[in-house]
Fold these 2 entries.
Entry 1:
Amino acid sequence: MTTTLITGANKGLGFETARRLVAAGHSVYVGSRDPGRGRRAAEELGARLLVLDVTDDASVAAAARTVEADGGLDVLVNNAGVEGRGEANGIVGAADTTADTLRDLFETNVFGVVRVTHAFLPLLRRSTAPVVVNVSSGLASLGGMSDPASPGHFYPGIAYPASKTAVNMITVQYAKAFPELRVNAVEPGFTATDLNGNTGVQSVQQGAEIIVRMARVGRDGPTGRYVDAQGSLPW
């Protein structure tokens, strides 16, 4: 059986991805920093709770020890993320962006991805078909953001796109360093979740499609790619 860990899986895209992978026969760990919410989600899904705060070294290390003791890991979905909205739930624009604005988002969206991947890499490398899926964003595309015809071109924030662009680079470098792994970045689309105040234009079922697809790639599947449900995206 394929064993899968999804960070930030107690709600939104992570929860729906977990639901779909459980249905596909995976043994799924619901990664959640809130034990209560995580337990409820895991019970509803028929999955296992893994208390995991991606911003905390000790929490991640303890989670890795738990998974190792349980038998190992085949698939890691780095889904946990934050967008960083202001007091009025608006996006922090360029004029108001400070180093602290970026630091807060990077702690979860970038450092969290590296922290979790580093901790679970030894377990993944023991798998016969290891997979890493990094949940990115269309706003990570330098080509798209600099193109006035692109839907994300007029997004005013700096911190969130910058953090997801960093995730894309992390994906490329891990894919090159570990060719036995399938490591890809995915753009789920503008999905209605708590991350964006439920302003997205598609459902979590639609958004989870590409995450689930890339979590199920085989040993000869793509690696080092940046994709959405329609195919490859410009870096």
Entry 2:
Amino acid sequence: MMTEEEARRLVLAEIDDVRGDVEYDLQILRTEALPFGWIFYWGAVRDGRSGPRPRLGGNGPFLVDRENGCLIRTATSVPVARQIADYERRLRREAHARNAAAKRDAGQP
């Protein structure tokens, strides 16, 4: 099982891969706990220049599953709430399939 700090390090490593392609400082801006893990919102921060925070394209938040350590980069074209709900549905389907397989292996109807 992954801790939030381990998940944060995983996300920061992904952000580091992008860092060389932009002139702004990139960092995690906000983290939210979810039933299965966390969502990390990230982006560019001001670098001392006046004006609004720089906007990046393609910087959808990362979902991190605490059980399996899976890091999922979300799409910016789909609402985040929908992507979270889709992932939760996927987890439920996978759990149901595991339970059905366990019952089948145990010879239960």
